Inverse folding.
């Protein structure tokens, strides 16, 4: 991203219908929006990284059992439960984001996520309060899942509506850069604790540290998001629906009187059924592969392949660092060649390379695991670099936050967040350690069909918005 100071050009927000007007973006506001959305997303996903990488320890703390597989299943069951309420969060926060504005809802989701994560660090163990411990863990996870229901759709919408049309892929890719940074922060902290603490210390109190860090992190994220201004696209849409007296950006406070009439849920769903189906298919392949690689694989290496826990975490950490390096370049590539070719390449890669990559991983040597995980990580970048710009472009401004929240969270809840639980159960039932590869291949087929049916959006205005260009 350019860092040179540029005198902002005047912003002219166009009506949602076709018009000759053009929105000239303010580079300073664009940078601020991207940074706040990406950093906030990193803080939100820090918890998901920690929870996944410390799943074996959490199983012993909250779900005592003689079987390590049962412990892991129970832990991932609580992990998956958070995804079951994500559609409810999407149904609440998405329509609110289309009514009162993107910025306010993004600030609210940050508060709730930080509170839920911090609460996990305070829960007594099963040995102290019995069955109350897993119930409290489940309650905290439900709060997290509910708040996350409004997070990704809001953050991707926010960046997409601020970005110039010809740079939306590059700027949107920084959202998933933030996600990877959150995962790396969580994985790095768990790895450091695993290396420095004894098993007894980690089991008795060490596991709490990553969750308690969420408190101050949440305050920082909230501050960043409260300083955001409403997107030009939303402000223009609000003005054009009869709220001209209250519309427009309101300065550095981030507070705005911009508000629109309530959009009927029927319009968000039935009125966007084709785009919703495409969204579900794209998000399915994106999140199944994402959670398989970043959330499930550390536990797969430890519990199924008996690989050393610390070395397994370090491999995943290295793969995520590689993905972060490639991410912005891949995002810029989508602006050049289009979103569809990049997403299609990822689907084809997972279809034909999942089995070879997992066979490499199963060999057990550090080099083989690194090559297999690295190949899957680079394929995943095809999705992480494309989706933040491709998904918001499926929907018009009037219903973008709400429809995207619904489609995204339904798909994540049914297919993405349940991936660790389903694959663990499939391996337990069949004894086939190749199940992760077969699961990713099935997801790739569905994603391939969705990308075949979608319309290319690179370099084009968002539906319902004026063309957006960078100042000369």
């Amino acid at each position: 991203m350019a860092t040179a100071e540029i005198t902002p050009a005047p912003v002219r927000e166009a009506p949602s219908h076709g018009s000759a007007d053009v929105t000239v973006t303010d580079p300073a506001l664009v940078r601020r929006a991207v940074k706040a959305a990406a950093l906030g997303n990193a803080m939100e996903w820090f918890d998901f990284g920690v929870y996944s990488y410390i799943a074996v320890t959490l199983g012993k703390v909250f779900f005592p059992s003689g079987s390590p597989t049962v412990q892991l299943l129970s832990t991932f069951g609580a992990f998956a439960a958070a995804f079951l309420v994500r559609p409810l969060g999407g149904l609440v926060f998405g329509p609110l984001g289309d009514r009162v504005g993107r910025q306010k809802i993004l600030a609210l989701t940050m508060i709730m996520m930080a509170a839920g994560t911090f609460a996990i660090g305070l829960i007594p163990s099963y040995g102290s309060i019995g069955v109350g411990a897993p119930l409290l863990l489940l309650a905290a996870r439900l709060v997290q899942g509910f708040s996350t229901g409004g997070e990704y759709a809001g953050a991707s919408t926010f960046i997409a509506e601020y970005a110039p049309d010809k740079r939306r892929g590059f700027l949107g890719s920084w959202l998933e850069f933030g996600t990877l940074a959150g995962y790396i922060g969580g994985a790095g902290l768990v790895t450091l604790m695993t290396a420095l603490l004894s098993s007894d210390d980690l089991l008795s109190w060490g596991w709490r540290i990553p969750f308690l860090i969420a408190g101050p992190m949440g305050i920082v994220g909230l501050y960043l998001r409260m300083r955001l201004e409403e997107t030009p696209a939303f402000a223009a849409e609000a003005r054009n629906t009869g709220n001209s007296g209250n519309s427009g950006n309101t300065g550095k406070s981030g507070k705005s009187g911009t508000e629109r009439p309530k959009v009927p849920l029927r319009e968000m769903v039935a009125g966007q059924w084709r785009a919703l189906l495409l969204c579900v298919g794209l998000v399915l392949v994106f999140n199944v592969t994402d959670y398989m690689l970043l959330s499930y694989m550390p536990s797969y290496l430890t519990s199924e392949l008996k690989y050393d826990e610390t070395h397994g975490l370090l491999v995943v950490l290295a793969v995520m660092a590689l993905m972060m390096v490639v991410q912005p370049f891949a995002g810029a590539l989508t602006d050049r060649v289009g979103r569809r070719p990049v997403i299609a390449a990822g689907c084809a890669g997972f279809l034909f390379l999942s089995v070879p990559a997992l066979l490499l991983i199963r060999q057990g040597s550090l080099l083989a695991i690194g090559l297999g995980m690295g190949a899957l990580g680079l394929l995943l970048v095809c999705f992480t670099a494309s989706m933040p710009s491709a998904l918001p472009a499926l929907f018009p401004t009037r219903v973008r936050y709400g429809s995207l929240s619904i489609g995204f969270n339904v798909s994540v809840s049914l297919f993405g967040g349940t991936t660790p639980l389903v694959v663990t159960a499939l391996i337990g039932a069949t004894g086939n350690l190749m199940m992760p590869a077969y699961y990713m291949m099935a997801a790739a087929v569905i994603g391939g069909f969705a990308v075949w049916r979608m319309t290319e959006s690179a370099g084009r205005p968002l539906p319902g918005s004026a063309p957006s260009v960078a100042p000369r």
Remarks:
- The CA atoms of residues 390 and 429 lie 37 Å apart.
- Confidence is low (pLDDT under 50) at residues 1-20, 243-257.
- The longest strand covers residues 23-24.
